[in-house]
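Let us practice reading a record.
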Amino acid sequence: MTLLSMLVSACMQGMIYAPMALGVYIAFGILNTPDLTIDGSLVFGMTVCAYVTIAGHPVLALFAGMAAGAAAGLVTGLLQTKLKINAILSGILTMTGLYTINYMVLGGQSNRYLQSGTTASNTVFKMFSRTVNDIFGENAVGDINLLPLILSATVTAAAIAILAVFFKTRLGLQIRATGDNEDMVRSSSINADFTRILGIMTANALVALSGALLCQQQKYADLNCGMGMLVVGLASVIIGQVLFGKRGITVGLISAVAGSLFYRIVLQVAYKIDMPSFTVKLLSAIIVVAALSMPVIKNKVTELNGRRARASSGNEGSGGNEQ
């Protein structure tokens, strides 16, 4: 694999998972809610997308996947707000239930290719269903197909633009305020339950969009694709915050996408040095720990430099007094 193809592959994967990073940023960064529905809603978006794509509607499949993720977020939000179940437990319950639902959507099997059967001369042939990539054709440089990267980047850019505008509207500001101080929101006669549910639905719809994009890119859906996705999303968000810092909402959204790209580039480098595939989860955990440790390390270095500066100035002062 050449350096160019490795970089394109990393950016393509980073952009496909970028909506998931945006969803994690909304749940953890804006709502301050540890939503564990993410692993399940990504697969839910994938399985629904596969079902609709096989039916012959690849563009509609992306929106159907988002709607599926929003429905999963609705269930989690209702468990949190109406039944007063702990946020972490609510996500676990929804994620657990989604496993059975995803299994049913796939027709009682753990994975399914985007194939439909056609009959000719009394023989059934399996053919791949058309995806969004097939509709727009190919856009290649040499042997590298750039179309999945272009499409996922376009979808991600549109998502950032819509979210940046939305979170500056009255309703968006209410969602942000709910994450900052829910008691204050309730005292202002704002329906905090509604804003929390809407925020969780938005987050899971974006996560499911990543699942739908991944499904059409790899042309199959698998129940195990969601394992560890929460860690991947957190790694992307945390890396983005380390690179850009904690700033406004627009920069926060862009930083989540940048973190997703950086994370995938690191993984591609790991594959380049022949790191076994089963070590990816461990590498993900190490990246998260390293990203979380960066602010602490920076503070320690700053504090140490300050002590050295004070010590050196004190020594110079005492030397001047002796003269």
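A brief commentary: Strands lie at 111-113, 115-120, 123-128, 140-141, 144-145, 220-222.
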